[in-house]
Amino acid sequence: MIKDSELILRPDGSIYHLHLLPGQVAETIITVGDPERVKAVSDRFDSIELRVEAREFVTHTGELNGKRLTVISTGIGTDNVDIVMNELDALFNIDLTTRVPKEELTQLNFVRLGTSGAFQADLPLGSFLLSEAALAMDGLLPFYLHSGEPDHAAITLQEHLEDAGVRLPVPPLIVRPELPSFLEQSDLPRGLTMTAAGFYAPQGRSLRLASGLSPALLTALRSWRHDDLRLTNIEMETSGIYGLATALGHRAASISTLLANRAEGTFHKEPARAVEALITKGLQLITEG
């Protein structure tokens, strides 16, 4: 039995942060960072059965083309992802009355529709990218993934950086999810996504404070290759979604539209238009794949 202090419920029996009850969430869940983007997604639904707002967590559940879907905002960062992933899993896989995990578990599909910055000069603004794996630079996953063999790509990345005489602020940890079945055959370009602990220095930006990601380190990261894998983009949620989905037995995919090109120092002139195109593409893949 899970203690009251570990699994916190509201007086109405709903899960604490998300304010949701079992049955209110679909098994296919779209995550977005911006709470306002939830409506932009659910406006495309044929019908909506549920709207709930709790802090930065906005949840809409409805149906599109005969498929039940939930879209939820995580806010920015893997600290929020930690809450969302654990509480959504609890709604399906823990009996909230007895506080005991269920014997028969439900496997969920998570699809992140988000924005990110391209890390390579040849990736155009406004293009889409499916994260094949994520490089966790945010600090969340060591609290969960504290055993097992490291991904071989992480080993080669460490060796590459050592040869270049630079190092990451944290040990490289790469996580690969099981993709939802409707995305396995997708022709979207794929790559390795770096998930950062912040927007500025943790992503190599310097305003009045210098970043610990030095130009030499950024150059070494751009030049690393492992088979067909290279570091393609940077954002703030994917590794948390991928790591927790994998540990909990769910499927997950992160699809990004590239609003900035960090190698070129450019930013999309019409970011709202790029996000709308991402939503269109994402919903098409989810409902037609």
TrEMBL record:
Catalysed transformations (reactions): uridine + phosphate = alpha-D-ribose 1-phosphate + uracil
GO CC annotation: cytosol
Domain Nucleoside phosphorylase: 29-266
Enzyme class: transferase
TM annotation in the entry: none
Gene3D superfamilies to which the protein is assigned, alphabetical: Nucleoside phosphorylase domain
GO biological process, alphabetically ordered: purine nucleoside catabolic process
Entry GO MF terms: purine-nucleoside phosphorylase activity; uridine phosphorylase activity
Annotated EC: 2.4.2.3
Lineage: superkingdom: Bacteria
One Pfam assignment: PNP_UDP_1
SUPFAM superfamilies: Purine and uridine phosphorylases
PANTHER family: FI09636P-RELATED, URIDINE PHOSPHORYLASE
Name the record gives this protein: Uridine phosphorylase
Organism: Neolewinella agarilytica
